[in-house]
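Hi Q.,

Before the meeting this afternoon, I wanted you to have the nicotinamide-adenine-dinucleotide prediction in hand. No need to reply - just skim if you have a minute. The sequence and ligand are here:
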Amino acid sequence: MIRVLVTGGAGFIGSNFVRWAHNAHPDWQITTLDKLTYAGRLDNLADVAESSRHRFVHGDIANTAVAAPLVRESELVVHFAAETHVDRSIQSAADFITTDVIGTFVLLEAARQAPALRRFIQISTDEVYGSVPEGASTETDELRPRNPYSASKAGADRLAYSYWATYDVPVIVTRASNNYGRNQFPEKVIPLFVTNAIDNIALPLYGDGLNVRDWLHVDDHCRAIDLVIEQGTNGEVYNIGGGNEVRNVDLTRRILDLTGRPGSLIRPVADRPGHDRRYALDTTKLRRLGWTPAAEFESGLAATVDWYRRNEQWWRPIKEKDQAFRDYYKTQYGNRAGA
Ligand code: NAD
Ligand code: TYD
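Predicted structure with the ligand bound:
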């Protein structure tokens, strides 16, 4: 059996990856290490809860006593754990530094002493390139992160690279575009807008709504990570983009169409400070390894909307009963003036 450590496996992408990898790799013995922050949910891992090939460890990646032994026993580390929401990083950046930068440092230090380790996958993000007015970012482009989240991720991204260059830790860095799909926490734009639309509540669209994101289905992301594990080269960076550039206002309209709600639900609100205008990735390098995204955005979004409709028991408790989420929502949107 191949011993695999997945950090942040109770979150959105991590749990999709654990489920996907558990099915795809019968020879993987997977350990999930997760702190279960507001974004981590054990029920995201329900499909593997009974499996003898999966173990859950509740702990903080920044805690050496917990994290280092797990890294040292692994052949493969897939490091998703992070604070991930840009708006929260603007409200308060401290947890982003502690988890995304120092947590990654703790894992990398342990990786130096992991005798069987053959891959350390640093899950980075396209946001490290900063706003891209035209064209598409290639892996060698300069990093210009512009908010505390993307700056923390850029720090972790380059720290991981430095551990390959300096200590020969078998690091590969992936930079994916915005993901969508099941189990995404309802603070991110798609699940927030879908669940608001289901409830006939206003959709707070930042600024002029013309910011562009490139949407990647989470299943395509999982396949790409798997391919990079199998065929990537240590020390390299791989962009993973869905090739679906959509303006926020158009995304919002599609969500309203799919939920049968009127355009009057759109509420233009004051812009996010430092709001990156556009992200776009050149994925030639990954495509050379044989990857292409399979999901078509229209049907992938429709299936995602359908998942949120069928799984109200997953998101209603967060939006309606979780006081921390309600406080966050109030701070973020309560006094937000119109755009
Ligand atoms: P998420 O917020 O849904 O989940 C993060 C998970 O990490 C949660 O389960 C949380 O409990 C856990 N975690 C947080 N701090 C921890 C700590 N100190 N120790 C252990 N566990 C901790 O995030 P996501 O959207 O699934 O993103 C996963 C990774 O992918 C992140 O590294 C993120 O930067 C990256 N990424 C995300 C996107 C996207 O669109 N969501 C795009 C590109 C890259
Ligand atoms: P988000 O899901 O927060 O991802 P990221 O900022 O990491 O790209 O936001 C996606 C886009 O949607 C981004 O341009 C900001 C915008 N947005 C809104 O217009 N309103 C909202 O309430 C949120 C959360 C995001």
